[in-house]
Specification:
Number of domains of chain B: 2
Number of strands of chain B: 0
Helix content of chain B: over 70%
Shape of chain A: globular
Distance between the termini of chain B: 29 Å
Oligomer: heterodimer
Largest sheet of chain A: none
Number of strands of chain A: 0
Order of helices and strands of chain A: HHHHHHHH
């Protein structure tokens, strides 16, 4: 098991964690979308490699879906939406980048400390993959928490889903039905997001979530 | 084995799915509303058929003692809500809050939600169950945002973000369960089939199962509206169309709790894994106390009852966490009673807010004089949900409290504190709305009282006399739940 195959899987999964860190400090919408496309590309490679070493051809389908939908179609579509809304400017970064990076490092450490002891008996390939996947999930959550604009929320959520796909690919022999459904639901999720972004524009002239929060309390009095 | 049973199971899924496809293309809203009711009725009949002939489980779908009654309850409430919805929607169309195009979409989504909930109950495969719950989430997000006001969009957006977060955590938990099962059961579909997982659960790696359960509880707990991830629930209930509030509170929360309970059974089957009971007791009690405190300051009538739903989900979770035949029995009974009562309340509230043109509690006054049927309906509903005899909710709450006093007196004190707080606040609020001098607009509404009366009648009956087969079923499942 240990050898080149293992090392490459390790490299790709670790690569996703690094790209997740890159997502954390982007302050331009276009850059954020580009980095997300890179995130999905690395995911496609990682899943493709898993398909190769597990000898599981159905995982290639997952890899192709990741490549076509998440690395090409979705970033392009979001980029168009953003251009049409005229918000391809900068994203404000709440707090400091340094703080987010430190929090991110802490989360990665947490993921490893949680996953590795628990999976001591599992296949070493699966357990490292899973630790990285959890780290990507947590970093996606962090991105959703520290940013206040809708685009970052969406990207954070999708990078989180990428982490889940990585976990599913790492679990040896997980049935195909699930992977297809994951891809499918991401697609649906995107339709929803698209609809929402347009509606938000219509009603608020802003995708800043803080502008929306202002409406929350007033009706209660 | 029996073909009729298989036909019923297929009908439970195919009828709503095909109705959704037909409804999306149907431009007449009257026909749409009728078709919606008709499809819900056929599905209800299919659900009832399952009691007579039960099909054998396969790797994807399964009908067992636990889900069969919940499926029947689910389809009963869906049917009555579709009847209520027909009247409600006609009024929304008159006042111009919804256009015929949106109604087409609304009816299709209603059936799609029915399909997703039935699939979630029927699923034997934990992956399939996850997909069904995700589908239900997406559909309800779209329905919550259907009015397209600022508040509705905000509510839908918040629900979408928190709901997807819950769903994502639940998927991670599902993957972990598979990973725990895979070394024992080998690769492939059986390692995700619920009945086969249960048979082999004793040999799973307990540490992995523990971690999986935490993720699953957080994930599906979000969908069940448990504190601290409940924030989407009041907004989604307040801003969406009222039939959807009724279905959300009465049914979708049950689906999520059902998923949590399935995994609780799995955990209990492994002696080395952590006992899920105390965790459930903790979140249940936190939800109950938090919601009981929050009810006090609500100014919006639908928000008020949304917080009451959080409270009751807390009570159920607490009961299932305590475990044992009596507490589980009470929890199952409470699940049924809450579904029926809360949806009946939302039926009334829907007509009330249409009659008054507002959802603000401060402008709703003296309902029993201006709208006697609605006013007294609300009184009956609130008295029932607050846990007063002779309604069924009283019985389930009494059972929960008394069984807890016998085992953990201190916990019972907290439980009673929460119950009393909610009880007092609800009755105080009710007094203001139902009695006193009338104020504000009083538009007449064509209300269909039948759904509300049916539900309250059932709840009243359950409080006085529970049918024998139902008691036997509750007892049997209570033992299954451990």
């Amino acid at each position: 098991m240990h050898g080149l195959a293992f090392d490459i899987a390790h490299l790709l999964a670790g690569g996703m964690v690094i790209v997740s860190f890159l997502l954390l400090y982007q302050d331009r919408v276009s850059a954020l979308l580009n980095i997300f496309a890179l995130h999905s590309l690395v995911l496609a490679l990682a899943v493709g490699w898993q398909a190769h070493i597990q000898d599981a051809p159905h995982l290639y389908v997952t890899a192709v879906i990741a490549l076509v939908f998440k690395a090409i179609i979705i970033p392009t579509a979001l980029y168009r939406i953003v251009r049409r809304l005229g918000i391809h400017r900068t994203l404000e970064v709440v707090g400091g980048v340094g703080r987010d990076m430190l929090a991110g490092t802490g989360l990665v450490a947490l993921a490893i400390l949680v996953m590795l002891p628990v999976t001591a008996t599992a296949d070493p390939l699966a357990r490292e993959d899973l630790a990285f996947a959890l780290a990507v999930v947590l970093l996606g959550l962090l991105l959703m928490v520290v940013r206040h604009n809708a685009i970052s929320l969406v990207i954070g959520f999708m990078s989180l889903e990428n982490g889940l796909v990585l976990a599913a690919a790492g679990a040896r022999g997980m049935p195909l039905a699930v992977e297809i459904s994951i891809a499918f639901s991401v697609l649906i999720a995107l339709i929803v997001i698209g609809v929402f972004l347009f509606r938000i524009r219509e009603r608020f002239d802003s995708v800043d979530m803080q502008a929306m929060d202002a409406f929350r309390e007033e009706r209660r009095r | 084995m029996s073909t009729l049973g298989s036909v019923a199971v297929v009908a439970l899924l195919v009828v709503p799915a095909s109705a959704a496809l037909v409804l999306i293309g149907l431009s007449s809203y009257r026909l749409g509303a009728r078709l919606n009711v008709g499809a819900a009725l056929i599905t209800l009949l299919a659900a009832v058929t399952l009691f007579g002939v039960r099909p054998e489980a396969n790797l994807y779908l399964r009908v067992d003692d636990f889900n069969i009654y919940l499926i029947a309850l689910n389809n009963l409430v869906s049917f009555t809500t579709s009847v209520f919805s027909a009247g409600y929607i006609a009024h929304e169309l008159e006042t111009g809050r919804l256009t015929p195009n949106y109604l087409r979409f609304y009816h299709a989504m209603y059936q799609a939600l029915l399909f997703a909930m039935n699939l979630a109950f029927l699923a034997n495969n934990i992956g399939l169950m996850w997909v069904a719950i995700e589908l239900a989430t997406l559909v309800t997000v779209l329905m919550v945002g259907i009015y397209r006001t600022q508040a509705a969009l905000e509510a839908a957006w918040k629900y979408f973000i928190l709901g997807s977060l819950g769903i994502a955590l639940a998927l991670f938990g599902t993957i972990l369960v598979y990973l725990a099962a895979q070394p024992v059961m080998g690769e492939g579909l059986p390692a995700m089939a619920w009945d086969q997982l249960l048979e082999n659960a004793a040999r799973f790696d307990p540490a992995l199962l523990n971690l999986a359960f935490i993720f699953l509880l957080l994930g599906y707990g979000t969908k069940a509206g448990l504190v601290p991830l409940h924030a989407w629930l009041p907004d989604a209930h307040a801003e969406g169309p009222t039939p959807i509030s009724a279905v959300l509170s009465g049914l979708l929360l049950n689906v999520a709790l059902y998923a949590v309970l399935r995994f609780k059974i799995l955990m209990s089957a492994n002696p080395a894994a952590l006992t899920p009971g105390p965790l459930l007791v903790g979140v249940g009690l936190a939800s109950l106390l938090f919601a009981a405190l929050m009810i006090y300051r609500r100014g919006d009538i639908k928000r008020l009852f949304a917080y009451s739903s959080i409270e009751h989900m807390g009570i159920m979770t607490f009961a299932f966490g305590m475990g044992g035949p009596l507490a589980n029995f009470a929890g199952l009974l409470h699940m049924t009673m809450h579904s029926l009562t809360k949806s009946a309340i939302f039926f009334t509230v829907g007509h009330i807010s249409q009659a008054k043109g507002t959802q603000r509690i401060s402008t709703i006054r003296g309902l029993t004089t201006t709208h006697p049927a609605l006013g007294w309906g609300l009184v009956a509903g609130v008295v029932a949900i607050a846990g007063m005899p002779p309604f069924g909710v009283f019985m389930s709450e009494f059972l929960i409290v008394s069984s807890t006093f016998a085992r953990q007196p201190l916990l019972a004190l907290l439980l009673v504190l929460g119950l009393l707080l909610a009880f007092g606040t609800l009755l105080w609020r009710l007094h203001g709305m139902a009695f006193g001098e009338s104020r504000g607009a009083n538009t007449p509404v064509h209300s269909s009282l039948l759904p509300m009366l049916t539900h309250l009648g059932l709840v009243l009956m359950a409080g006085i006399w529970l049918p024998g087969p139902l008691v036997v079923w509750f007892q049997h499942v209570a033992v299954l739940l451990g």
